[in-house]
Amino acid sequence: MSLAAILDKGDIVPFGNIHHGVHVAGIAKGYEALRAVEESVVNGTLQQLTLSHRERSVFVDLLGNLGSGEASCIAIAKERKGIVVADDSAARGVCHQWGCSVTGTIGLLSDLRRERRLSPQQANGLLKEMIQHGFYSPVKKVPY
Predict the structure, then answer these.
(1) What would the pLDDT profile of 99-130 be if each residue is shown by its tens digit?
(2) E strands in the chain
(3) Residue 54: phi, psi to the nearest 5?
(4) What is the per-residue burial (b if ≥16 Cβ within 10 Å, else e) of 85-95?
(5) Distances, alpha carbon 99 to alpha carbons 23, 116, 131, in Å
(6) Domain ranges for the chain
(7) Distances (CA, A) of 109 to 15, 43, 57, 64, 84
């Protein structure tokens, strides 16, 4: 989500929910592009979630190893049977340990391409742009 916001491509991310900690922590750290995420919450494109008691318990357990954004996403996904999108190996490992479905940026782009939400040219153009902004990618083209 944060890279999509930095690239001003938040409209292609197919999520409808976000936890407050995900974008607010990023804004506090100086990632001004995440203000677009805040605007999406304000205009109703994204729904801001509140952690349930059980989710908060998982969140607190995860804070020792992960940042608040990753911890909140995993806690929500675990309790609500969602999918975490993470490229960070530690976060992906925690997802596997806690039984959460996980994909990465390449998987997300591939899904968007398969669902015809992005053309092959758009998907590969986004990947190229992300790489230019410092994203490490194991592939040069989005698989189909």
Answers:
(1) 999 998 899 889 889 989 889 999 999 899 88
(2) 17-19, 47-49, 83-85, 101-103
(3) -65, -40
(4) bbbeeebbebb
(5) 24, 29, 30
(6) 1-50
(7) 13, 25, 32, 30, 14
**What pTM value is reported for the model?**
0.73
Six token digits for residue 4: 């999509």
4 Cα distance to chain centroid: 9
Q: What backbone phi and psi angles, to 5 degrees, belong to 85?
A: -105, 110
Q: Which residue has the tokens 């230019």?
A: 132
27-84 confidence digits (pLDDT tens): 666 666 666 777 777 777 777 778 899 999 999 999 998 988 889 889 999 999 988 8
CA distance 47 to 19: 8
